[in-house]
4-diphosphocytidyl-2-C-methyl-D-erythritol kinase (Mucilaginibacter gossypii), 266 residues
Amino acid sequence: MILFPNAKINIGLNITERRPDGYHNLETIFYPIDIKDALEVVKSDKLSFTSTGLEIPGLMEDNLCVKGYHMLKQDYDLPPVSIHLHKHIPIGAGLGGGSSDAAFFIRLMNDKFKLGLSVDEMTDYARRLGADCAFFIENKPVFAFERGDEFESIKLDLSAYKIVLVMPPVHVSTGEAFRGIKPTPVKDSLFDLINEPIADWKKLIKNDFEQTVFKNHAEIRGIKAALYEAGAIYSSMSGTGASVFGIFAETPDLKFLEEENQVFYL
């Protein structure tokens, strides 16, 4: 059985307060985009994980799909499986690729082995693997809050626009992105701001991580500026970076960015 886990972008990202458990409360808009991995699971004699495409760092046991298998096996009598992941979603990009793989793995195992898990139950399992994993269970635009794992549905459809995502040859770690962040309560919530005209988003909707990341990575700051110069209605870094997206009325000519970066026209 094969599924195709997709990426997401963050439209706005406000870090609002530090939690007693050491995490941060935030608010953001998650929006699914059409950059996809391929995930295959088959029965096997022993548990194994292999990958092709982009190189995935870390040990097999650290992979979220493998962690997901062990988590489900605690509650269900699962046979060993062979997991193969073809990695296409850029890593360290703020696109949630690893989280999507984990959530789609839960969905795949539920279907393949007829576990009978409801959407809420799959969401609870996904939440245990990572804050934004839970989003990919239903995989539709949401306002996310708390740790980024509580959701409220929103009506947001960008299909009339052209989204372009640029991934520079830069890796931004979550720790680096959080360094220098000062949590600040918001006056106007993204839940309301997202309903404003897209032409107004530039002055209303921000990503708190840009200030820190742009300071350390001038090339990421430059990509955002280049997208606006190319006619973007709105542009922002996604998540903790390093990718930057632009929303355009028409497909732009960004050949000048393609030489040194990955450019996805969505």
Q: What stands out?
A: The radius of gyration is 19 Å. DSSP finds ten helices and twelve strands in the chain. The CA atoms of residues 138 and 222 lie 34 Å apart.
